[in-house]
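Morning, I've got a small favour to ask if you have a moment. I've dropped the whole record in just underneath, so have a look.
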Amino acid sequence: MPADLTTCSAVIVAHDVNLSIFKPAWLGRQGILLDEELAGQVVITPALVRVPTDRFELLVLPDRIQLRPAKESDRCQPDLVRILGGIVSKLPHTPFTAIGLNFDFLLRPAEDRQFAAWNAQQFAAPIALSIIGGEVDSASYGAFFTFAVLGMKLHADFRPVPMGRREVQDALAAAPDANVMQAKFNFHRDLATPASVAVIFEVLASWNAASSVASRLAAEALGQHHEG
């Protein structure tokens, strides 16, 4: 099967976000959210503000502002720029400290019986093989690496996932006994005022490019060629 994107999100980390501002009337008046996006069940409490829509979920907490799009990650960059860009433009004095773009995938070779061989071939480091010895077929392997790309630091984390995980059960409902790997890609950039707002827009404008990088790495981990 191809790499399956399970979730993606853009997160802006900040100190002391003023949740009291995030009323539907304010979000609509500022052009951050459209009328149809405010027609659903908005949750407002002293601890969080949550605006769910068909295309995304906006979540505001005291230490972060997050937009989680639907899985069509290649179509949501305009929403990210409009909503998160709109928020930071209206609150330029909020101490934003970092921004992250996140893409999570589930990976599984075409045939489940190939999982152990593929997992060892792609992820087993020599030191792991020397320690494990002859128990290669019963072992599972993962990997973590980080490098600079698109003006950000990319943290890539590959690891076997317990089948009890909700996202695994949902994604592999047709094959509940399958082995699976999770690949998590976090594109991170620290922020420093007064350039924070401009940098946030720069990172949001890199969403499609970051999504393409994450999809390519996930496909290559499966031994597949990624177009795009």
Q: What stands out?
A: The CA atoms of residues 57 and 220 lie 30 Å apart. The chain has two domains: 9-98, 102-221. The chain has a mean pLDDT of 85. Helices lie at 24-29, 77-90, 115-123, 126-132, 166-171, 196-204, 207-221.
